[in-house]
């Protein structure tokens, strides 16, 4: 009721303003409200040591949430939840696996391999089990392990894998121009799909072979990430016959396959064939004991809304999103144990605050409502955005689009800008047109094989059918050498990404962020005011979900 009343009052004020002001919005003045200085101010607050890395369900998250609500209220947004408040509670379950497990591989009565936790493999109970004891489990290599009827692809060929440990090649097929979007990684190539399909097929467990090319990151990222507590939405934590999820290093995967008389390189290459069939690891059995403890926690999304001015369109929403969480506190490096997350993602959250300020300044001219969602739990598996998308305060079929802001340009101005997933939605053409007005070019993702489209919060909205734009910084830096991106930007980002070095002082410049966010404001303004809602391009994997969502509200 409070939310509806706020819309009514805001609409009346908007009518009064329109009557007293020019009918042409001052977009330049609105854009100019988005400044490097304003963004930097918020980053300094959100990534300060006092927020302790903004880990979910910690005092650092509470402090972050309080700041976000304060900013949204000062700007003049209304609470975006049904009760008129700004906070959406996200119930989650945290799993902590006891370290020290050993994965023993046996042949007959002899143990031929003992893979140690953290250094050789990472393993954890798959579905909320407190203890897991697996004995003499058969293992089957299933290639990519993909079932994709629309691609005429099935790696299982009808073989029953119930009760077996499935061993997967990471990623998805890349050598077909007409399948799986060429060398661009789809959701089929994500590690999460491997675990999901194993559970769906009744497998006892799933092991992913780690290689640098197929993962896109080193073993240190695997071990460091999975050694932390893992989170799942409480309503998605269910009993399952699947007991084990795991990764195995490239080196030890090679040893495992050799023990079964198989060459790992040949097996990885075979996965590229549409005719691939599962290959048993003959004679080998897996044994492991694991223990885990669980806590029930509550993460928080902060959702503010700028009500639309058009009575025929204001029940439709454009959603901006940015995740406010980071990794919290970890092992000390040179005496520093706080993962401040200045770039990831205090930067995107700060930019979204200033975006809201710009939209508010022209609110009488914004036809649709605009939702600004600072979501939690992104680093834990996109939990906050997934919960918001699945429990949206407005019908999903009434959300025209999502624009996700994650890790903005912290280096300098660029001649170009990137759309991760370029060519998937109608929003892309709007961004291309707006960029051209500023003499800038729009590039596709420069590493499509890494599947970045499935690794940030826009994916949660895409999964329920909402057309999603994921802009990223460009690669051609103004007044810099031709090799500046490769020689400075890439090493710098590798130095700070998910480390204690991601601090405000390691952000080089926010002038490029200012440039990009002003461009994205133009895009968002057009999306919020377009006569029609945005759409997926024909044939996209999320088009069917979009059509179902729209049908549900008509």
What amount of the residues lies in strands? 15-25%
Named at the architecture level, the CATH assignment of the largest domain is 3-Layer(aba) Sandwich
Counting helices, strands and paired strands, the structural category is: alpha/beta
Q: Tell me the name of the CATH class of the largest domain.
A: Alpha Beta
The number of distinct helices, counting runs of at least 4 residues, comes to: 16
- Helix proportion: 25-40%
Radius of gyration: 24 Å
What is the end-to-end distance? 23 Å
Helix-strand blueprint:
Elements lengths: L1 H19 L6 H5 L4 H11 L12 H17 L2 E2 L7 E11 L4 E6 L2 E7 L4 E5 L5 E11 L5 E2 L4 E2 L10 E5 L21 H10 L4 E5 L2 H4 L3 H8 L3 E4 L10 E5 L1 H10 L4 H7 L8 E28 L10 E7 L4 E6 L2 E4 L2 H20 L7 E7 L7 H8 L8 E6 L11 E5 L6 H11 L3 E4 L13 H6 L4 E6 L10 H13 L14 H19 L13 H11 L1
Parallel strand pairs: 6-9, 9-10, 10-12, 14-17, 14-18, 18-21, 19-20
Antiparallel strand pairs: 1-13, 2-11, 2-13, 3-4, 3-13, 5-12, 6-13, 7-8, 13-17, 15-16, 19-21
């Amino acid at each position: 009721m409070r939310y509806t009343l706020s819309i009514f009052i805001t609409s009346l004020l908007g009518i009064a303003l329109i009557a007293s002001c020019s009918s042409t919005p001052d977009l330049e003045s609105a854009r100019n409200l988005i400044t490097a200085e304003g963004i930097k101010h918020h980053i300094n607050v959100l990534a300060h040591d006092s927020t302790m890395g903004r880990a979910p369900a910690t005092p650092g998250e509470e402090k972050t949430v309080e700041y976000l609500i304060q900013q949204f209220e000062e700007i003049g947004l209304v609470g975006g939840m049904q009760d008129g408040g700004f906070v959406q509670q996200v119930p989650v379950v945290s799993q902590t696996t006891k370290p020290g497990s050993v994965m023993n591989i046996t042949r007959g009565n002899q143990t031929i391999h003992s893979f140690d936790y953290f250094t050789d493999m990472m393993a954890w109970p798959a579905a909320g089990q407190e203890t897991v004891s697996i004995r003499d489990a058969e293992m089957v290599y299933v290639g990519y392990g993909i079932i994709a009827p629309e691609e005429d692809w099935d790696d299982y060929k009808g073989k029953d894998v119930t009760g077996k440990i499935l061993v997967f090649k990471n990623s998805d097929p890349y050598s077909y121009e007409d399948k799986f979007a060429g060398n661009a990684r789809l959701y089929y190539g994500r590690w999460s799909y491997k675990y999901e399909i194993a559970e769906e097929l009744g497998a006892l467990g799933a092991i992913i072979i780690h290689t640098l090319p197929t993962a896109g990151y080193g073993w240190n990222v695997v071990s460091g990430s999975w050694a932390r507590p893992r989170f799942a939405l409480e309503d998605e934590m269910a009993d399952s016959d699947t007991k084990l999820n795991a990764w195995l290093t490239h080196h030890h995967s090679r040893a495992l396959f050799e023990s079964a008389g198989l060459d790992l390189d040949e097996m990885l290459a075979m996965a590229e064939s549409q005719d691939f069939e599962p290959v048993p690891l003959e004679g080998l059995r897996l044994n492991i004991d694991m223990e885990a403890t669980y806590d029930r926690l509550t993460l928080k999304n902060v959702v503010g809304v700028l009500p639309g001015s058009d009575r025929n369109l204001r029940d439709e929403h454009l959603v901006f999103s940015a995740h406010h969480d980071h990794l919290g506190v970890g092992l000390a490096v040179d005496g520093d144990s706080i993962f401040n997350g200045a770039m990831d993602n205090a930067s995107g959250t700060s930019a979204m605050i200033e975006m809201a300020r710009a939209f508010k300044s022209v609110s009488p001219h914004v036809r649709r409502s605009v939702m600004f969602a600072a979501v939690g739990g992104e680093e834990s598996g996109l939990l906050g955005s997934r919960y918001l998308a699945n429990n949206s305060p407005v019908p999903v079929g009434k959300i025209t689009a999502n624009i996700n802001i994650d890790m903005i340009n912290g280096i300098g101005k660029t001649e170009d800008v990137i759309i991760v997933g370029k060519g998937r939605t109608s929003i892309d053409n709007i961004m291309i047109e707006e960029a051209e007005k500023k003499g800038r070019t729009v590039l596709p993702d420069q590493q499509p094989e890494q599947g970045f489209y499935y690794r940030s919060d826009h994916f949660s909205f895409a999964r329920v059918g909402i057309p999603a734009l994921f802009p990223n910084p460009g690669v051609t830096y103004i007044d810099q050498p031709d090799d500046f991106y490769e020689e400075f930007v890439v090493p710098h980002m590798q130095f700070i990404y998910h480390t204690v070095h991601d601090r405000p002082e390691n952000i080089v410049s926010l002038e490029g962020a200012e440039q990009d966010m002003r461009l994205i404001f133009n895009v968002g303004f057009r999306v919020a005011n377009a006569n029609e809602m945005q759409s997926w391009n024909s044939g996209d994997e999320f088009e069917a979900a979009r059509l179902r969502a729209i049908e549900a509200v008509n």
